[in-house]
Task: inverse folding
């Protein structure tokens, strides 16, 4: 989903990303990017997704994102809901949006702050469920790539479930991913 913003304030100018930060991101190998998600390895899968996303950001001169536990909770809840309720969309059947999820998690603390929120979703079966496959699909999609490279974003949360909505899986094992992106503008 493209960034959703509350036009409350203009984001302050952020310092340029240092060459050292970019070099570090590019030099750090992304471990476990070929793991097939299973209940026992989801923390490793989330870490691999973050590494691959930050590497893509570094290749485009953007600062790395940091995990925010509130966005992580929102992403986990949404990925679990997608599987449990057998749907695949940014807006839940009850009308809940990515902004609603960020607000409910406490990431958006009150109505007096500005924010920019985005969300990427994906699912894959078999070898298309690995972090490498999911992130490659996002990078190949202009809308998903725009979220990955949005320069305002500072925070992220990644949710992964080792299952796919039944109506999409064809009975194959796989995984469903949700990545929330955000920045709070004071």
Result:
């Amino acid at each position: 989903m493209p960034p959703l913003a509350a036009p409350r304030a203009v984001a302050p100018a952020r310092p340029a990303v240092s060459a050292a930060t970019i070099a570090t991101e590019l030099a750090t190998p992304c471990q476990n990017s070929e793991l097939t998600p299973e209940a026992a390895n989801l923390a490793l899968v989330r870490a691999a997704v973050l590494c691959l996303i930050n590497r893509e950001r570094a290749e485009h001169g953007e600062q790395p994102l940091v995990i925010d536990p509130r966005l992580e909770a929102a992403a986990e809840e949404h990925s679990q809901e997608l599987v449990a309720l057998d749907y695949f969309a940014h807006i839940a059947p009850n009308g809940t949006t990515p902004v609603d999820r960020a607000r409910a998690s406490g990431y958006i603390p009150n109505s007096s702050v500005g924010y920019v929120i985005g969300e990427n979703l994906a699912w894959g079966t078999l070898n298309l469920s690995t972090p490498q496959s999911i992130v490659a699909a996002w990078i190949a999609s202009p809308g998903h790539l725009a979220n990955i490279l949005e320069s305002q974003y500072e925070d992220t949360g990644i949710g992964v479930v080792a299952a796919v909505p039944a109506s999409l899986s064809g009975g194959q094992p796989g995984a469903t991913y949700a990545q929330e992106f955000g920045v709070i503008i004071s």
Notes: The chain is about 40% helix and 20% strand. Residues 42-59 form the longest helix (18 residues).
